[in-house]
Design brief:
The protein is built from three helices and four strands; from the N terminus they run βαββααβ. The chain has one domain: 2-Layer Sandwich (Alpha-Beta Plaits), CATH 3.30.70. The relative contact order is 0.29. With 100 residues, the chain is of the alpha+beta class. β2 and β3 form a beta hairpin. It has a four-stranded antiparallel beta sheet with strand order 2-3-1-4.
Length: 100
């Protein structure tokens, strides 16, 4: 499993941003194999974690036309800066443990 970590400093957010973010989140989960998608913000800082089964799914999502258009709008309108990191999850455990 992989995680994509998107960290950003907000620029000018508008109604279009919220609509676009919601639509893209739904599309990633429904059509591209995204397993989980969580986003939080504090002040101008935003972080989004999306979990994926493999790199192929991530690359397909990265190349999706509406996602590419949103990336361009993000860089020119919505974000002062952003950073994307992709990591492989080597271990995953939780509490309480599930009973087999």
């Amino acid at each position: 499993m992989f995680v994509v970590i998107f960290r950003a400093e907000a620029g000018k957010m508008d109604e279009g941003y919220a609509q676009t973010a919601a639509a893209l989140r739904e599309m990633a989960l429904r059509d591209f194999g995204c397993l989980e998608f969580h986003s939080v913000s504090e002040g101008a800082q935003e972080i989004t974690l999306s979990y994926w089964p493999d790199e192929t799914s991530i690359m397909a999502w990265k190349a999706q036309a509406e996602h590419l258009a949103a990336q361009k709008r993000g860089g020119s309108r919505w974000y002062a800066s952003y950073r994307v990191q992709v990591a492989r999850i080597e271990r995953d455990y939780s509490f309480p443990r599930s009973v087999p």
